[in-house]
Write a structure and sequence with these properties.
The protein has 647 residues and is of the alpha+beta class. 35% of the residues lie in helices and 28% in strands. The strands form 9 sheets. Strands 1, 8, 9, 10, 12, 13, 14, 16 and 17 form a 9-stranded mixed β-sheet that branches. The longest helix is centred in the C-terminal third of the chain and has 21 residues. It is elongated.
Length: 647
Amino acid sequence: MEQSTNTRQVEHIIIGTAGHIDHGKTSLVKALTGIDTDRLPEEKQRGMTIDLGYAYLDLDLGQRVSIVDVPGHERFVKNMLAGATSINLVLFVIAADDGIMPQTIEHLEIINLLGIRHGLVALTKKDLVTDEWLAIVQEDIKNILKGTSLEDAPIVPVSTVTGEGIETCKTIIKNLIAQIKTHDDVRVFRLPIDRSFTIAGYGCVVTGPIMGGQISVEDEVEIFPIKEIVRIRGIEVTGERVDTAFAGQRAAVNLAGAKSSEIKRGYELSIPGYLQPTKIVDASLRLIKNAKTPLKNRARIRFHMNTSEVMGRVILLDREQLNPGEEALCQFLLENLITTEREDRFIIRSYSPAHTIGGGRALRYNTMRLKRFKEETLKTLKILAGGNLSEIVEQVYLNNVVRRGERPFTLTIDDVSRQVNIHPSVAEKIIADFVRKGVFMKFSVEGKNVIFHKTHVLSLKERILNELRKFHKDNPLKMGTDETHLKTLLGKNINPLLITTALSSLRNEKAVKVTDNKLSLANFKIEVSTQDKGMAEKIEGLFLKAGFAPPSMEEVCVKFGASSKTVISLLTEQKKLIEVEKGLCFHATALEKLKENVKEYILKHGPISVAQFRDLTKTTRKYAVPLLEYFDSTHFTKRTGDVRILL
Ligand SMILES: Nc1nc2c(ncn2[C@@H]2O[C@H](COP(=O)(O)OP(=O)(O)OP(=O)(O)O)[C@@H](O)[C@H]2O)c(=O)[nH]1
Ligand SMILES: [Mg+2]
């Protein structure tokens, strides 16, 4: 095979056919290209197209355009859909003798829902009808095109038998292509797979339209949703071997080490790690005007996106039923994994019998099951559906902190560009604009730049201040709380980085201070009443006098009343009393003395046992064990077997 140099200097276009069975789609493609796209033996035998067929058309200046020929039979609409999602230009075929038929309407609805705006109507079999009849059919066609994406499409009478109109078709195709602007190099490489087969000597080959970016031989790609990473051994575009293939081309890709039997239509190639397979998609959905019945909440449907078809249910988020012609925000709960990005188009068909009933755009794939009739959710989805890119980026930030799940806590430029489906440089610019305007706040946490939406930082700061106020009120004799405790007070659903950020901002503003690792409001001071002060002195004296045999809490309470508890915590806060174990305090001086005695003993006699410690300090076992454990925990001593050594 010849190696050709493929460039992306020209627009890469995929042409697709559409129209009722037997109206002459395959014949027209053959008349235009010389290629017979009906390749299956069954197709030849039955004289009809069953699955997608592929051809290409050579235009001037060496431009070669892919053509996807689809089946018209109502049973194969699902195959038609696998081809239709990737086309930029449609050859909408209507036979002049038959006129408008059921799949004429259904295919037109699909084209309209997919938003395919470029196309021509080929009015075929002109040789079979009179001019009057042709004029009547043309009027009918104009009527059905009204209000659709093909409203302005030219209607070209043709005959593949006499050859009439074929050249006109080619000229119109060329003119239409000149109007199409597909340059979307902002997107990452994606190739929804429509075929997978094995070629002897080559191994696994998959084919499909390239929806974004470009791909070269030797690149690594991941097969989604099975998440297998493989190397590209070779690429073919419209029958020629190339080194690189671009968005808008159909490519056959030879995958090293992959098994074609494991790869199905509907799978997708992309760069490793890029796509996140999901079973839930938030979307905006429109029901076609001709739908026979309204669509009920939770209805089971067939969901077609790119080359895949999966079953699922539709959750209507703001109503009980969607009426024909109406549009609504919804969530699809699918029965199998799919891969998608924001703005991918989809079609839904009724479960049984299968009819096209609606379609729309994906708004979000990194989502979770949403509660219906929630204002907040609907507001977000409305912005995702109709907002500009900046508003959408803002939503991504707003949702990142509020929602739970496995999403990353800090959004990188890459995360944003994926979720919004824009080039990282575009995401970067939008984010920088927001930071400049103060809508997003940028902080440096542990050497990393983190960016949060202003409202999250401000409301969390307010909450922290409230928690500290409450803490001081409940614990007037404590200097403050530690960060870990504060985090539990705030609840575990808050991004820890956001807490760190809010705290450092509060400290910078001198609204919060840290003393001995305790957080407190900047103006907080422990206020001790004269009464408490007197009691504190007495209690301290008691512990000092008691030395190595201090009183228990109960004994102190009996003597000084219930409020002595807070006074004791004040004394521990001031480090005058040391809490060796819960409810057992020693005076700091006594503890120091004890440590001296122990040190002296060990230096003189070697390791000390519990019994020796008890004798040395004249304490009971009740005190001896907790004390030694305390010494171990503070790294003064170390236990080896039954004795302790100095550390
Ligand atoms: N007389 C006449 N017959 C035509 C013309 N175009 C197609 N046919 C015939 O119509 C029949 C169907 O043509 P196809 O091209 O297979 O139709 P199709 O739309 O591809 O059909 P499906 O793929 O099954 O939906 C064939 O017998 C063709 O020979 C035409 O311009 N004039
Ligand atoms: Mg056909």
